[in-house]
From TrEMBL:
SUPFAM superfamilies: Citrate synthase. This is citrate synthase (unknown stereospecificity). GO terms for molecular function: citryl-CoA lyase activity. Keywords: Lyase, Transferase. It is an enzyme of class 2 (transferase).
């Protein structure tokens, strides 16, 4: 039993015990009543945008209009990247297998893990390490240098949030940084994470001798960090965003038809690298 669970007693048995089983501060619901974080649903409908509703559900309070706008911008920027993205391809392939929209979407969402979909969470955690070092007195330059030194000494692969296997410069990232700077200038956010991301990019460029620019994951991580979301929620927000593209592709493929479409046209076969053709040994060995 965890420390948070209450041991059953006279006060938590029967119906009371059942009511405490899924205790939540998110929703209150009974016949004729739905309250989200204390707000009557009928009061929210038509007055609160979808990004604001996401904020309310996750954070417990309504955002300002500007905060909701910035969250919506980040969510809108990452909705799709085409069938070459594994999640989108999986949604389309699943649709040709005769499953429903929900199954096609679930199949796609289930592959949004550490490699495909998790870079935003990793980037925000990376930024957070640098911000924490600055809070302890390090300069921006020293904090970035120290964190990158540790990354290249202890970790492998790409610095999360930088570089793109398809785009020399991810067209979404510069625009998202421009928007972030605009919101910071208006006092909606502080702009700290944008500054950190730009400093990381500059230092990577210096070390590599070529520019490894910020990508969509790094840019949306900047916005989510500016808005105060913790790194794990960054992945969840990406899933919400990419679900829009997943739904669109699953629906388009459903309308186009097709049966059992695999990752390649049937006339294109994979490269076989196994044992050459051979005969089964005789019964006598």
């Amino acid at each position: 039993m965890s420390g948070k669970e209450k041991k059953p007693n006279e006060e938590t048995t029967g119906r009371a015990r059942g009511e405490e089983w899924w205790q939540t501060s998110i929703i209150e619901m009974m016949p004729g009543v739905i309250r989200l974080r204390g707000y009557e649903i009928q009061d929210l409908i038509g007055r609160v945008s979808f990004p604001a509703m996401i904020w309310l559900m996750l954070r417990g309070e309504l955002p300002t209009d500007e905060q909701a706008d910035l969250l919506g911008i980040a969510l809108g920027a990452a909705v799709d990247h085409g069938p070459q993205a594994p999640s989108i391809a999986i949604a389309r392939m699943a649709a040709t297998c005769g499953v429903g929209i929900n199954s096609a979407m679930a199949s796609a969402i289930n592959v949004l893990g550490d490699v495909h979909g998790g870079a935003g969470e990793q980037a925000l955690a990376f930024y957070g390490d640098i911000a924490a070092a600055m809070d302890e007195g390090a300069t921006l330059t020293d904090a970035v240098t120290t964190r990158l030194n540790r990354f290249f000494a202890e970790e492998s692969g790409y610095v999360p949030g930088f570089g793109h296997r398809f785009h020399p410069v991810d067209p979404r990232a510069p625009r998202l940084l421009e928007v972030t700077r605009d919101f910071a200038a208006r006092g909606v956010i502080g702009g700290r994470f944008a500054t950190i991301a730009e400093a990381i990019e500059a230092e990577i460029t210096r070390r590599k001798g070529k520019r490894i620019p910020l990508n969509i994951d790094g840019a949306t991580a900047v916005i989510y960090g500016e808005l105060g979301f913790p790194p794990p929620l960054t992945r969840g927000l990406f899933v919400l965003s990419r679900s829009v593209g997943i739904l669109a592709h699953a629906w388009e493929q459903t309308e186009q038809g097709g049966r059992n479409k695999g990752p390649l046209p049937r006339e294109w076969l994979w490269a076989y690298a196994g044992t050459p053709k051979r005969k089964l040994p005789d019964d006598g060995g």
